[in-house]
């Protein structure tokens, strides 16, 4: 038996009390303490204690949905909503974690923005159905239009864009497209001044993320051809496209580890899960959602800290008591492996995951570029299974560091980049 689909859905996700009964479609966490989710009828909810409690915030909107929400720290955040048939895009902004939101209308009511992304408290981007990408350098007080190269897809470059994602302050991506025509990705290497267009799939893409600086993954699809994935392994210069044999669309893309990725499938009342990094040719399987709820957004901040949000305001927390999914269904790791830290580059904290196939003494150390030992993380007994640690490098200078893990006579090392 590979997986027992019906028996494991409740085990992996645990219900948490919600302060709203409106459908939640978007979520955002800055760390394992502060998080937000948003959705229908202007609903925004927030946690300041790692999800132990959630409270409703007042967005000032009641008649239409929050399309996207983004925070750069625990105080500074932005959200977008649209009454586009009548008055255009509403831009929401907070400087106190959402306790108070201020709103303004984008002056050009012919433009529709439904996704937003900020690099820092000043520099941000937004795009949407209109297909244009706009940038701000003053926290959103003013916006200007970015240039989109038309050479590769000359007639399609203004197709809708549904998600923005940046690897660093210069390299970023957008994904989108049009149903029954094209799925597309746009890339910038100069902080959004110019965007190059890639036509990569037969159906729209709805989410994009980086597993590393070189590996970029996007997903999407439609109800006719089903869930699809596109992957680049060279930093977004070339893309491979594949249908995943599940008749659904993927709006959210959440890597629990570098190997295990979850995609909520909304109306199918299930998740698509892959245990091979979503690689082309690998198998995607369906896992029923808990309580048969429609799940719209899933997010993992660490391998043991994950959340899902969906219909009727439901909130589910990943059950950290379980190890994860495996093709054998045992949940027992079969190798000694060390995953690349995430995020990387980082400032000041990063998460490092690893698996040990039998209990024993485990040693973790940090070295600088000259090979000098700068910190002993731990040297103690650990049980078999998946583990993750967070390294806070606030007291160390920018530069290259090496994390070395030793267990059972084996060693693995990864390179990490601290950028302040």
Descriptive overview:
- The protein has 1 helix and 36 strands.
- With 420 residues, the protein is mainly β.
- A 5-stranded mixed beta sheet has the order 14-18-17-16-15, with no helix packed on it.
- The N and C termini lie far apart (48 Å).
Adjacency order of strands in the biggest sheet: 14-18-17-16-15
Biggest sheet overview: 5 strands, mixed
- Residue fraction in strands: over 45%
CATH-level-2 architecture of the largest domain: 7 Propeller
CATH classification, class level of the largest domain: Mainly Beta
Q: What is the CATH superfamily classification of the largest domain?
A: YVTN repeat-like/Quinoprotein amine dehydrogenase
Structural class: mainly beta
- Could you say which overall geometry the principal axes of the C-alpha atoms support? globular
The total of helices stands at: 1
**Strand runs, count:** 36
Task: Summarize the structure in short.
The protein is mainly beta and 420 residues long.
Keywords:
globular; 36 strands; about 50% strand; about 425 residues; 4-stranded antiparallel beta sheet; mainly beta; Methylamine Dehydrogenase, Chain H; 1 helix; 5-stranded mixed beta sheet
List the helices and strands and how they pair.
Layout: H1 5-12, E1 13-16, E2 24-29, E3 35-39, E4 44-47, E5 55-57, E6 66-71, E7 77-83, E8 88-94, E9 102-105, E10 115-118, E11 124-127, E12 133-136, E13 144-145, E14 147-148, E15 161-166, E16 172-178, E17 182-188, E18 194-201, E19 205-210, E20 216-222, E21 226-232, E22 240-243, E23 254-255, E24 261-264, E25 270-274, E26 284-288, E27 295-302, E28 305-310, E29 315-318, E30 337-338, E31 349-356, E32 360-368, E33 373-382, E34 385-392, E35 399-407, E36 410-418
Parallel strand pairs: 14-18
Antiparallel strand pairs: 1-29, 2-3, 3-4, 4-5, 6-7, 7-8, 8-9, 10-11, 11-12, 12-13, 15-16, 16-17, 17-18, 19-20, 20-21, 21-22, 23-24, 24-25, 25-26, 27-28, 28-29, 30-31, 31-34, 32-33, 32-35, 35-36
